[in-house]
User: What shape does this take?
Amino acid sequence: AAGVIQSPRHLIKEKRETATLKCYPIPRHDTVYWYQQGPGQDPQFLISFYEKMQSDKGSIPDRFSAQQFSDYHSELNMSSLELGDSALYFCASSLMGENTEAFFGQGTRLTVV
Amino acid sequence: EDQVTQSPEALRLQEGESSSLNCSYTVSGLRGLFWYRQDPGKGPEFLFTLYSAGEEKEKERLKATLTKKESFLHITAPKPEDSATYLCAVRSSGNTPLVFGKGTRLSVIA
Assistant: This one.
């Protein structure tokens, strides 16, 4: 079965650079969530989209932005990167409605040096 | 505010030594309690969803149960390949984001 695809899997950037992470949800899933997970931490919710509109906003820094496109894939844009942005970034997708599971991708490991 | 507390933080078991992981939650209206397994550097892998008190689900050596205040993940006769971090999460309504606990790091020693 198709899963959530994230790219790239690994990314190394310097401070103050920009990064773009991509997420391709499971086919027919209409909702995408972005999470950030620091070393030894639980996943922290950043932002989510339903039908290309932002649906919920969590602890996403103002330096970050995201959008969902007409084909339902999503991109997380990160600017003015800081050392503290180094983390695993996960995307999850689900189908709108009660009683639906969220499935996660394998993540993008971002290292800011 | 929805809250999830998992215990213990870490658990070390001998192969074949059964045990349980706990997930206590506070949520305005539970619309699902989720268990995930996460291996280092990998994405959380979906295990179970529970929706109402009294519900139970099983998968291989794992069994998840739910009460009105907590969920347990029972591991029967664990094997070293069961070593991972087990995350519990709740959803309070519709398609709102999952709120995670800090996880339990399980190590199963042969």
About this structure: The interface with chain B takes residues 4, 6, 31, 33, 41-43, 45, 48, 50, 55-56, 58, 88, 90, 92, 94, 96-107, 109 of chain A (CB under 8 Å). Chain A has a mean pLDDT of 94.
